[in-house]
Give the backbone structure.
Amino acid sequence: YMVASSSYFVALDDMDNMLGGTLILRGELPYRDFFSHHSPGMYFVSALIVPFSGNDIYVFRVMFNILLFSLLIIFYQALRRSTSRTFGVLAVVWVALSQPIGFGNAALAESLLGIIIPFCVLWVLIILPLQRKTKTTTLVALSVVLFLISYLSIAYIFIAVILTVFTIIHLVKRVPTPKKWHELSVILMLFTAPYVLYVAFMLLTGSWH
């Protein structure tokens, strides 16, 4: 549906995202070189797609929807390995149905978050509590994905914060009492690192005005 409806014209922010991605490929950065009241994430995502779009908004939308489909496959593989094939299939169907159908044809942060947020909810509230031990690589990946929620749209930062708090509480509960404070400090560093790096990037590039 989303790929087929990519030719449906609606004057939405995906044109702004396409322009932002084009400017980034020219060496410009959001806030430093061009104005925007949006979060920067979609501009960088768009920069990955623009070279394959031929400066055509409809092709740009199709390429973006191919990216969404690829994310669904990646998330399915992660869910299948952590639970079962049946759960993976049901979860992907639920995530796909969570897409904002009203403008699902457009290359928007909301369309990307329509996949990322439900996946994070599943992982934090269902899969993580079932695990006795979680690999460090998995926690790093989860930290980055949770950060991407606010990086794509600051309007959804409350979801990232709530899911991060749930994750930290569950991880600390697993640790024996004598080690709780040490483990808590490590976990806090892990889940705040992406935000620290982002602020550092903004300051070092002169984008923080």
Q: What stands out?
A: The helical segments are 14-25, 41-49, 57-82, 85-97, 109-130, 136-152, 157-173, 180-204. The two ends are 41 Å apart (CA to CA). The CA atoms of residues 131 and 192 lie 22 Å apart.
